[in-house]
Amino acid sequence: MFDEDSYNNYEPEPEEIGYEYDPHKDPKLPLAKKALKEFLLQNKNEVFYSRQLEVKFERDFYHWITNTAIRELFETESFLKCESATLSIPEENPIKFYFHKSFRYPNRKIKKSLKLINEYSQNDISIALGDRAERLFSAEFHKYGFEWHGRSVNEFRGKKWQTTNHDLDYIISRDGIHYGCEIKNSLDYISLDELKTKLEICKFLEIVPFFILRWAPKSYIEMVRKEWDGFTLLFEWQLYPPYFKDLVGRIKNTLGLKVDCPRELYDSTFKRFVNWHEKLVNSKKNHKGPYNST
């Protein structure tokens, strides 16, 4: 279960601190390389691909830092080998597997991992994942008395967003406060461009941004909180429907990814947002900027 106190140190985005970002010069990169090297030396008979490592180390390092670290290790460390493969789904994307040079039979595990990645990357499973997260959190909206004002919506109270073709997953409200809600149940981050667009939609519609994400960089969370007076709820484990129990078990055992298939959410998960909402209501203060509680 996610502990928000372990993930509350803000690290600014490159554009916020005024220089052109180069991940190879990130101050966290040496720490990431050290952690990855220790991990790989302890797992000499395993193979790993980048996203797998990004998720494993995401509490400590941004995904892009881990990705840069593993590529730099391969270029500079003689103990590390790499094999390229091609995913059949989606769109024959390339993928690289890293392993210790002493591993005698990496191809067996590469084929096993590749087959599994192709399986869970199928479009119908991606759709099922999105639907599952929306169903679980929609149940929480109802449980805690939040009213729905639309699904896949780009207009509210006489205003319609037409700048782009984007919309919000939901608009919900309680106690006179309206939220534009976006739910992402993916291993990777929501893109920064998409995040900013959704924030602009909320600003235009004069509602409070509320992001429900499996995981996100601290800087994204702080952007939503500090600049837009919104809230980001992280649930960490990718949520599968219960009928994918066998697949979830194989993903855990083979790849060690953060996946689960609960029938309902932990009580504490959505309660983090409810507590934040109640503090907002009890403060009897309007949101800054365009947001208000009327």
Secondary-structure blueprint of this entry?
Layout: H1 29-42, E1 48-49, H2 50-56, H3 63-76, E2 80-86, E3 94-100, H4 106-120, H5 123-143, E4 147-153, E5 155-156, E6 159-160, E7 168-174, E8 177-184, H6 192-205, E9 208-213, H7 218-227, E10 231-234, E11 238-239, H8 245-255, E12 259-260, H9 267-283
Parallel strand pairs: 8-9, 9-10, 11-12
Antiparallel strand pairs: 1-3, 2-3, 4-7, 5-6, 7-8
Helix pairs in contact: 1-3, 2-3, 4-8
Word description of this protein:
The chain has 294 residues and is of the alpha/beta class. It folds into 2 domains: 4-120, Arc Repressor Mutant, subunit A; 123-283, 3-Layer(aba) Sandwich (Trna Endonuclease, Chain: A, domain 1). It is 42% helix and 19% strand. It has a 5-stranded mixed β-sheet, with helices on both faces. It has a 3-stranded antiparallel β-sheet with strand order 1-3-2, sandwiched between helices. A hairpin with a 2-residue loop joins strand 5 and strand 6 (159-160). The chain is globular, with a radius of gyration of 21 Å. The two termini are 35 Å apart. The model is unreliable at 5-19 (pLDDT under 50).
